[in-house]
């Protein structure tokens, strides 16, 4: 757990340099791993823990995300780019038309805005990752359109 907490702190510091420069916080924020507040995510099998900002209203924001083991999100895209650092488990990412990539702890992924992909967590263990973006989070399902294209 200490490794995860340190990783979150390091990643948050690196990826939010611009936001931190503008932040006028007067107090430290310290959350031991056991104090992180997890909430159900927008898709069954996912959980989110807000670190800063509000992903539902728009960026910039930073969250921790957990996917259940085997949780795979069908073909979809996001309006805004997502920057992701894998903390535990094996994250699976496949951009439409490209080979599948498996990303372990310490790996980085930037999902480009509008780029169709399948993503999730490999079987065997849940995945935890840090995610940040400058825009509102959305998940636009492209699986139905892809299925009708094959008919």
Structural class: alpha+beta
- Strand line-up in the sheet with most strands: 1-2-3-10-5-8
Annotation field: number of helices: 3
Largest sheet: 6 strands, antiparallel
What sequence of helices (H) and strands (E) makes up the elements? HHEEEEEEEEEEEH
Q: Which strand-content bin applies to the residues?
A: 35-45%
Distance between the termini: 48 Å
Gyration radius from CA atoms, angstroms: 16 Å
Briefly, what is this?
The chain is of the alpha+beta class and 151 residues long.
Q: What does it look like?
A:
The protein is an alpha+beta fold and 151 residues long. It has helices spanning 2-15, 17-22, 143-149, and strands at 39-40, 46-54, 58-67, 72-77, 82-88, 91-95, 101-103, 108-111, 117-121, 127-133, 140-141. It contains three helices and eleven strands. A six-stranded antiparallel β-sheet has the order 1-2-3-10-5-8, with helices on one face. Strands 7-6-9-4-11 form a five-stranded antiparallel β-sheet. The longest helix has 14 residues, at 2-15. The protein is globular.
Strand and helix layout:
Elements: H1 2-15, H2 17-22, E1 39-40, E2 46-54, E3 58-67, E4 72-77, E5 82-88, E6 91-95, E7 101-103, E8 108-111, E9 117-121, E10 127-133, E11 140-141, H3 143-149
Antiparallel strand pairs: 1-2, 2-3, 3-10, 4-9, 4-11, 5-8, 5-10, 6-7, 6-9
